[in-house]
Amino acid sequence: MELMIENLSKQYKDKWAVNHFSVSINQGVYGLLGPNGAGKSTLMRMMADILKPTAGRILLDERDIHLMGDEYRDMLGYLPQNFGAYKNFTVHRFLLYIAALKGIGRKAAEQKIDRLLKFVNLEDVKSKKIRALSGGMKQRIGIAQALLNDPSILILDEPTSGLDPNERVRFRNLLSEISSEKIVLLSTHIVSDVEYIAKDVIVMKQGQLLRQAPSAELAQEIKGKVWSVRIPEIRLAELKQKYVIGNILRHQNGIEVRVLSEEAPLPDAVAVDPDLEDYYLYHFGEEAGRNGTFSA
Amino acid sequence: MELFRHELYKVFCRKTVWIGLLFVIILVCFSSYMQASQLTNTYGNMREYYNNLYKGKEGSVSDSLKQAAKSWIEKNGENYQAKFITNQTSVQENREYGFYSQVLNPDYLTKNTQDEIAKLKNDTKTANSSYNVSKDNSQIKILQNLQAPGLYFTLSLLNDLDFPEGLGFVVMGILVLLGISPVFSDEYSSNADSLILSSKKGRRSVVTAKILSTTVYCVFVAAIVLLMYSSVQAAVLGIQGLNAPLQLGFINSPYSLTFGGYLALQGSLCAVACVFFGMLVLLVSSVSSNVLIPFFICGFLFASTAFIKSIGTAVPQALITFSDFSYTELMRVKGLVESFKAYDILGHPVLYLNLILISYFMITAVLIFLTYRIFHCRQVK
Q1: How are beta strands A153-157 and A76-79 bridged, if at all?
Q2: In this structure, is residue B54 part of a structural domain?
Q3: Is the Cβ of B10 closer than 8 Å to some Cβ of chain A?
Q4: Closest chain A residue to B189 measured between Cα atoms?
């Protein structure tokens, strides 16, 4: 199974949200990384066939998904960003409704719902109304509904937002389990969500494809540009003004700062092995810092 | 079927619907009781009235009864009128005057019909177009087939005939607006449309389910409003007169219906009108993410045609014709059957009732098609 995005573009008035984007993906997990406004959600909406592109097309095994219509949507599981759930519905009723939308019969739906609620750890709130649930719980319902029809293609837009670290790990593990037979594309600001499980990371900037490669390969591209240096805390502000700063670790006698720079920022700075987080900061550091979209 | 059940649940689980229903039921029952009380204040207990004067005498009127009625009217008529003006009549006097007037009514109605037929026959001879001849002949045929008028006790049903004309259509319209405006708008405003549109049955089947649930809801609205009103009327006044010819309520009506038949027709037309109106609201809801937009646009359309009707002949003819073919007129029912009215369609006279129904079936088919189209092409930006 191969999903090919050919020269995909989407224009809103005078802005190109997605601009000549081409990529090819098959079974496995793919991470879609980029800051706010990069065009990730727009791309995902086009892949979910709920937004028509201005130009280009998306092909599944060489068939245009827009022409496939219901056949494509039958294979699709989609979790949008800020997805809407009916607050007056109970968890159970909402999932039954989604199952009906996906063409799953009542009996089969009941069994799948029980299994999925167990998986996302929400069996205890099955009869509770959605408005009574926390943000993280609602997000887990969103994940469950995306998996209801056992989709071959899973598109998840920021699926781990609102999940605590334990739930994020469970989610990563689930994706790893199911991804061998599926195409899974997830967009995130949380680098650790994709760093270890993604086959490839697709990096998006201002609507365009920046890079597609395994995370290790991306990290290697900025080798020699990531430094670790220990400084007294009072010098941090000065360093932030000159360089893009990554992780900050506090020690008893100062702080250890990870700095992105073409050259050593300070004489005692030590070059360290870069990771995907560094790669993200290297390309989006100032943007991400400005609009607060980056988090580890 | 599953989708339809869920969509129906979505309509009925809204608090606004239940609050609206509660207010409407209270208002309708109160109004019905007050209107029924007006009659009982004038005529006393209706069952007693019926049993004392009408029972056993219904149907064609005997000559002796006609004579008795004429004598009573001659003897007491003027005195009664004088006392009536000053509100000094007793319940018994009101009953007797009402009864004896009704005894003489069938002769008046028969004469009225015969005069009308004679006039129409004359008109056909001097008509200047084949359409007018055809129209007059149709009317003659209808009048000749009318049920012979007689003596019937119809007081307990008169309010039921008038109810949709007044408060009835207003509350039905409001309930349809409350229940149907959010059907699509809520999906857009809550971002649920992303999930719906990306699913297998999210383009066509879900629209079908929404249309069916709208239909069920609208029929429910008409049924509950009319039943509530009629139940209170029946409890206070009884239900005699179901087999009375409609002409005893609407003198110029060309339809050979009984009161019971008319009430059944009225209920059906109200339900159908609510469904037609509901489809319009559904269409406007499908293009708007703000629930107030379909509510106010459709509400304005609904209210404006009723307003035009209330002004009378002071508006241009085009507006009068427009309001004649409005949802409000269909929902009010009375104007469709109270007199003979036909329109020239390709040289053939088509009765007003038939024409408005055909028109709305066609309009609603277009609205439903557009709703499917709009949602099918809907994009989430």
Answers
A1: parallel
A2: no
A3: yes
A4: A84
